[in-house]
């Protein structure tokens, strides 16, 4: 959850100096959850207020660096084994516009592999005094290097680098096979200062860029957008910077093919559905962890950073698949393989008050026949919101042990939240002792102020300190060992099965080290009201609620208006309006202004020290948070991953984290943060998931039915079905909002069971997709444009998606709709699609949007021809599913062929076990296994769609099946059952062939 998200909904308490409500929730009714309290001091609202700043992109007084700066001149160019090096010198008097100009730079160009080009520009003079200003240590973020076989493979690299000095240094990257300019800084000056870097490139008309996260936006970025990279604790605003930093984009360009000559013409606005097109995609990774801003304009893209260097990696592709795999293989690592249970359903909310309520939720899922794999708790379980300690009144260890034991016996799991800040106990109150804090002190585990004292901010428990991951990695202090130790100690009391990391941007509810002189006031209440407290009652509902629930809407509107009137009266008369006077920092030569840099990025929170640890916070060893802010979330996932390896030796850690960086996927999954119960956020969830597919974090999901605000029956009905096809499937909502578990509404329960039946039957397919992602870097959720790269009309399609290459989902995303329009890619070019439900072939034309019936409770799902989908009978838990018989769903292509694969292992070990391949050639289906894992479940049935002629005989390994099969001449479906006896030792223990004539 985000403190700022709470503010956005309910407003802050203002600069109160009185006491207010506080700590642990103990009420019995979730729908009307309140909090029992003891009186504690409430931080005034202005503790989280900083100086007024105006982002440079909106500042009419801002200096244009391109006008006043001289650029650079290249000299001393030398060829190397894999590229070249050069010196860059200022081409005129220093401009020092947003910092101090760096006079001398080094250029390095490397052809690192057959498809990767590295271009780096960094200061010529770097030492221990300024290294963190410019150099991102490889021990924090690995750096792609020249491949071991580069001496032979780079000869085939399709990328070409060139440079010039007219009128100042610029460089160009070209795709040799097409002559296409992928990146060119011609016409733009290079600006390189100690707190500001700017470089730019031209882009073709109506370009298609994807990625550049984390942001709530459509899949295609568009050409009038500024992307800010600065990790922020904020409740999912649209088009602003959010929790994570992924400075990577995929650029896809379409060309129309002249059928007579074969020549290619760039297609800026392709509209011909029958035309012949080909696409070329490339990727660009900017390896820089400083605050950044990227301006996308109709004809160019401009990068601006507040530090670091220019460290670019171009990936030639020419397909999305090749780009994504190469990016992961070389730069960020392959995604973590998840345990099988993590693909079951997850239920959570902020407001589960005790173990008894949690058990009631678990029991209700069973009562209504809805599968439940994992139950989560938010900060409610904590002892006064402190990490690694339970409230012994509401979530005692003894009762928790019994609760979790029942879960585990039933094949279910428990996942708690762990926040990123550590409570600082009150030194004047012996009863306030906190062993976790004390042990961290012994390990030098916390960030410091510049004077060496503890940096003390404020989060949920009150005044807090913050783990110093950077100091641990760079200076050898003990944050990692301490964190792992706390996880192990806590697990002895609570047998959790995974960890949910929150608030890891890292968030602080006050500006600066606000607690340094105030520790004796601890614990203190945050500087805003929690949901459900006076002044922050949740009245919000989804769009269209006034139509579907008019009576309730009227009542809510009246209550909301009354509350607003009371708040207005309490606030007194409005202040007189005055124009804002913004602070503008003038650069001081040779000195960095950390809190308020001269260049102001368009940060959602305003100044960099708002709702975050201040940029001048200091790490052990002397480096400062300004240079590493975006890496806190990344490194806490690193620490948690290795801590879980200690808790569960030999098992894959399960972590869902909020703040991520390039490479976090090798340790954890991610959820989309504090979204809202609005139809818009359900729509955006698809683009979020697809973007994180590009970033190498396939274990992605959102707070289904919405986090902030109240959900309603129709939205939750649609959303529970949509999220059933996301890898991470969790329902979660905010404190004091109405309950939104799927059993709350009868129609939602039915819709959920329908979608979950599909999901759980397809778990073998999803698990196989994750194995392939883990081994090769392939994607799990896919945009249609990636799988069908030569159809330019799909470039912006983000209202439907693919799960792997074989399953397409076309959800309803609009309130009140009973149908949805969907496109069937590849039709007209050899593709065939089948309806999941009636198993008949879809009739559609090339590029045609088909109206699909989708009454409430129905989500359209389609199977791609040429696919073999491994399935198991669905159960109430994944453990039950894994013990059920197997099935195969075969969808033949137009040519009558199909193929697929299945990966099986024990579902938890770090070491992989086995792989199975399927292939179908017109009238025979072959199964051939590889590996040592022994699965003893029999094969129950095989369904083959798209057999055009009648079937008179079916054989398994040459033995005729006299019964148990039927052929439907209308749907052209062959259904074969009764195979269990023939495969009683296990469906895959022996290779087999199924034939029909």
Could you characterize what this model shows?
The chain is an alpha+beta fold. 20% of the residues lie in helices and 25% in strands. The chain contains 19 helices and 51 strands. Strands 3, 4, 5, 6, 12, 14, 15, 16 and 19 form a 9-stranded antiparallel β-sheet that branches. Helix 10 packs across helix 13 and helix 15 runs parallel beside helix 16. The chain is globular. It starts with a helix and ends with a strand. The relative contact order is 0.11.
Number of helical stretches of at least 4 residues: 19
Distance between the termini: 59 Å
Strand content: 15-25%
The backbone outline, from C-alpha atoms, is: globular
Give the beta-strand count. Answer: 51
Regions with pLDDT < 50 over 5+ consecutive residues?
A: 4-38
Largest sheet: 9 strands, antiparallel
Mean pLDDT comes to: 93
Estimate the helix proportion, in percent: 10-25%
Q: What structural category arises from helix and sheet content? A: alpha+beta
What Rg, in angstroms, do the CA atoms define?
29 Å
Topology (elements, then pairings):
Layout: H1 3-10, E1 19-20, E2 40-41, H2 65-68, E3 72-80, E4 83-90, E5 104-111, E6 116-123, H3 131-134, H4 150-153, E7 159-164, E8 170-175, E9 180-184, E10 191-193, E11 196-202, E12 208-213, E13 225-229, E14 246-257, E15 264-266, E16 277-286, E17 292-297, E18 300-305, E19 310-315, H5 320-332, E20 346-347, H6 355-367, E21 374-377, E22 382-383, E23 386-390, H7 397-409, E24 413-419, E25 422-423, H8 435-442, E26 457-459, E27 462-465, H9 469-475, H10 479-493, E28 499-502, H11 545-548, H12 550-571, H13 632-647, E29 655-657, E30 669-671, H14 679-694, E31 700-701, E32 703-704, H15 713-723, E33 730-731, H16 746-761, H17 763-776, E34 781-782, H18 784-787, E35 801-803, E36 807-809, E37 819-823, E38 833-835, E39 849-853, E40 861-864, E41 867-872, H19 878-882, E42 886-891, E43 897-904, E44 914-921, E45 924-931, E46 939-945, E47 954-956, E48 959-960, E49 965-968, E50 973-976, E51 992-996
Parallel strand pairs: 20-21, 20-33, 21-24, 24-28, 28-29, 29-30, 30-31, 32-33, 42-46
Antiparallel strand pairs: 1-2, 3-4, 4-5, 5-6, 6-19, 7-8, 8-9, 10-11, 11-18, 12-14, 13-17, 14-15, 14-16, 16-19, 17-18, 22-23, 25-27, 26-27, 34-35, 35-36, 36-40, 37-39, 38-40, 41-42, 43-44, 44-45, 45-51, 46-50, 47-48, 47-51, 49-50
């Amino acid at each position: 959850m985000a403190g700022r998200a709470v503010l956005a909904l309910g407003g802050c308490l203002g600069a109160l100096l009185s006491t207010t409500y506080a700590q642990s929730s103990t009420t019995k009714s979730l729908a009307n959850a309140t909090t029992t309290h003891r009186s504690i001091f409430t931080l005034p609202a202005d503790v989280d207020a900083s100086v007024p700043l105006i982002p440079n992109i909106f500042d009419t007084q801002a200096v244009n660096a391109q006008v006043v700066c001289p650029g650079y001149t290249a000299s001393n160019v030398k060829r190397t084994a894999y590229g070249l090096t050069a010196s860059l010198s200022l081409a005129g008097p220093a401009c020092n516009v947003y910092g101090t100009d760096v006079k001398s730079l080094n250029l390095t160009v490397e052809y690192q592999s057959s498809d990767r080009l590295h271009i780096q520009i960094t200061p010529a003079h770097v030492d221990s005094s300024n290294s963190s200003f410019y150099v991102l240590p490889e021990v924090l973020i690995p750096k792609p290097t020249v491949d071991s076989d580069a001496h032979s493979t780079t000869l085939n690299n399709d990328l070409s680098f060139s440079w010039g000095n007219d009128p100042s240094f610029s460089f160009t990257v070209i795709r040799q096979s097409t002559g296409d300019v992928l990146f060119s800084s011609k016409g733009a000056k290079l600006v390189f200062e100690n707190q500001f870097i700017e470089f730019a490139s031209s882009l073709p008309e109506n370009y298609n860029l994807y990625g550049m996260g984390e942001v709530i936006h459509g899949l295609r970025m568009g050409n009038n957008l500024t992307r800010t990279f600065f990790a922020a604790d904020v409740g999912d605003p649209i088009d602003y910077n959010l929790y994570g930093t992924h400075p990577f984009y995929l650029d896809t360009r379409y060309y129309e093919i002249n059928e007579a000559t074969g020549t290619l013409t760039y297609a800026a606005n392709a509209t011909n559905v029958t035309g012949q097109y080909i696409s070329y995609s490339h990727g660009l990774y900017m390896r820089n962890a400083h605050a950044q801003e990227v301006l996308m304009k109709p004809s160019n893209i401009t990068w601006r950073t507040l530090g670091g260097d220019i460290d670019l990696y171009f990936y030639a592709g020419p397909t999305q698949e090749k780009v994504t795999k190469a990016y992961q293989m070389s730069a960020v690592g392959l995604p973590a393989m998840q345990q099988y249970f993590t693909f079951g359903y997850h239920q959570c909310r902020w407001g589960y008050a005790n173990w008894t309520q949690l058990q009631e939720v678990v029991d209700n899922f069973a009562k209504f026949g809805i599968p439940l794999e994992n139950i989560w708790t938010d900060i409610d379980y904590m002892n006064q919101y402190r990490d690694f300690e339970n409230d012994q009144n509401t979530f005692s260890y003894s009762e928790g042990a019994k609760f979790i034991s029942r879960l585990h016996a039933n094949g279910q799991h428990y996942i708690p939240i762990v926040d990123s800040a550590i409570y600082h106990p009150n030194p004047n109150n012996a009863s306030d002792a906190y062993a976790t804090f004390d042990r961290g002190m012994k390990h030098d585990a916390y960030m410091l102020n510049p004077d060496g004292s503890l940096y003390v901010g404020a989060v949920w428990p009150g005044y807090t300190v913050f783990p110093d991951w950077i100091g641990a990695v760079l200076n050898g202090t003990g944050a990692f060992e301490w964190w792992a130790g706390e996880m192990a100690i806590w697990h002895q009391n609570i047998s959790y099965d995974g960890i949910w990391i929150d608030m890891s941007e890292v968030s602080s509810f006050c500006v600066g080290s606000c607690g340094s002189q105030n520790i004796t006031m601890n614990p203190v209440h945050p500087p805003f009201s929690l949901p459900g407290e006076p002044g922050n009652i949740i009245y919000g509902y989804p769009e269209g609620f006034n139509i579907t629930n008019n009576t309730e809407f009227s009542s809510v509107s009246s209550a909301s208006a009354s509350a607003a009137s009371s708040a207005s009266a309490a606030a007194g008369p409005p202040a007189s309006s005055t124009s804002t006077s913004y602070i503008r920092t003038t650069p001081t030569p040779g000195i960095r202004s950390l809190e308020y840099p001269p260049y102001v990025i368009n940060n959602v929170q305003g100044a960099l020290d708002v709702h975050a640890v201040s940029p001048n916070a200091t790490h052990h060893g002397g480096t400062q948070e300004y240079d590493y802010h975006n890496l806190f979330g990344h490194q806490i996932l690193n620490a948690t991953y290795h801590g879980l390896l200690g808790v569960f030796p030999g098992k894959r850690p399960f972590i869902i984290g909020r703040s991520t960086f390039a490479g976090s996927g090798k340790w954890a999954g991610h959820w989309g943060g504090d979204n809202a119960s609005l139809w818009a956020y359900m729509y955006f969830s698809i683009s979020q998931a697809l973007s994180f597919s590009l970033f190498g974090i396939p274990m992605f999901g959102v707070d289904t039915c919405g986090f902030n605000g109240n959900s309603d029956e129709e939205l939750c009905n649609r959303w529970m079905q949509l999220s059933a096809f996301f890898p991470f499937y969790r329902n979660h909502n905010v404190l004091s909002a109405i309950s939104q578990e799927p059993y709350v509404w009868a129609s939602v329960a039915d819709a959920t069971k329908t979608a979950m039946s599909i999901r759980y039957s397809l778990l073998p397919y999803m698990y196989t997709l994750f194995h392939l992602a883990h081994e090769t870097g392939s994607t799990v959720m896919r945009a249609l444009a990636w799988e069908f790269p030569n159809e330019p009309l799909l470039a912006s399609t983000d209202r439907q998606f693919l799960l792997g290459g074989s399953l397409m989902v076309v959800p309803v995303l609009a309130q009140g709709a009973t149908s949805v329009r969907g496109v069937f890619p590849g039709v007209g070019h050899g593709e065939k699609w089948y309806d999941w439900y009636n198993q008949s072939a879809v009739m559609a034309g090339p590029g045609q949007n088909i109206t699909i019936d989708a009454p409430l409770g129905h989500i359209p799902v389609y199977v791609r021809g040429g696919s073999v989908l491994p399935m198991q009978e669905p159960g109430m838990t994944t453990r039950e599913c894994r013990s059920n018989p197997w099935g195969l769903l075969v969808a033949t292509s137009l040519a009558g062929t199909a193929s697929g694969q299945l990966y099986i292992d024990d579902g938890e070990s770090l070491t992989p076990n086995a792989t199975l391949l399927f292939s179908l050639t017109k009238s025979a289906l072959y199964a051939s296994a590889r590996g040592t894992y022994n699965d003893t479940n029999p094969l129950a049935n095989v369904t083959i769609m798209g057999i055009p002629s009648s079937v008179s005989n079916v054989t398994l390994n040459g033995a005729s099946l006299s019964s148990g099969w039927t052929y439907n001449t209308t749907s052209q479906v062959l259904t074969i059952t009764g195979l269990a006896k023939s495969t009683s030792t296990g469906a895959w223990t022996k290779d087999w062939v199924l034939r029909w004539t």
